[in-house]
Amino acid sequence: MQISLLLMEEIAKLFAIMIMGYVVVKAGLMKASESKSVSVILVYLVIPCTIINAFQVEYTPEIQKGLILACAAAVAVHILFLAVTAMLKGILKLDIIERATVIYPNAGILVIPLVQKLLGQEYVIYSSAFITVQLILLWTHCKNMLCEEEKPDWKKILLNINIISIIIGVVLFACRIQLPAGVQDVLDMMNNMIGPLGMLLAGMVIAEVPLKTVFTRKRNYLSTVLRLFVYPILTLVLLKVIYSFSAMTDARQILLTVYLASVTPACATVTSMAQLYDKDAAYSSTLYVLTTLLSIVTMPVMVFLYENLL
User: Fold this and answer.
1) C-beta atoms surrounding 255 within 10 Å
2) Which of 171, 232, 242, 249 could form a disulfide with 302 if both were Cys (CB 3.0 to 4.6 A apart)?
3) Which of 248, 191, 309 lies closest to 67 in space, CA to CA?
4) How many domains would you assign to the chain?
5) b or e along 142-175 (b: 16 or more beta carbons within 10 Å of the residue's beta carbon)?
6) Contact (CB, 8 A) for 290 and 227
7) Range of 212's domain?
8) Is pLDDT of 22 > 80?
9) pLDDT band for position 276 (50/70/90)?
């Protein structure tokens, strides 16, 4: 109960920042299109620094085991999402945008600041496991699905700045290399920017989408219910099974980092990719906005269930 209440408080703070981004655009001080510049700063500077910073912890066998557990859980969750979506595709007639929306949560932007506040900086390293698995799938499965390619472009995947930062972080961690104090201070400052900057970006994007169409189209709620309710509940069942086989003392907290990533709203990257590959970016933006707005209620509820069932 305590974690779910803290989560509600932290999400409320982040949403207050999102409203600021919304107001800035609506007041005419900035254009919604300028959110792309903010996105570049977030994706190419802030998130890589945050990922490297997450691996700047003391190497211990316990952390190594925790990373293995987090990676295994993250892979299992994504397999679950892919399998369930494949089954529901024909039954619910899910199009490409709807399938991408329910499979890929907005973990990269939301999970790290929430883990920092709820569990502490020492648990952020486990969030990188989910982000790594998701990044690989985004630039293989999701990209191929949206642009209808047969083979993934591994060169682009490996040269993705976030993948590179994960590799750097892992090498530093495995080699037990601690960065100089000055560099660490810079990483800490960039680390503190990820939540506010991500929500400012979300607010600017939301200002571009007519809210009337977001809430009045009935079809929008199908993907929203799947992303915010059905998939999180299925994930909870899966993590409960994984937890029952884990002997680690802090397995519950480690798995919570995976669960927090799993219950976030639709991934912002899907909208960007839809724009890039000439798919229905407007529909993707609508689902992103609706799931983001409703997640302020659903995420604390799902974490409350996690606290009581695990």
Assistant:
1) 27
2) 232
3) 248
4) 1
5) bbebbeeeeeeeeeeeeebebbebbeebbebbee
6) no
7) 2-25+36-305
8) yes
9) low
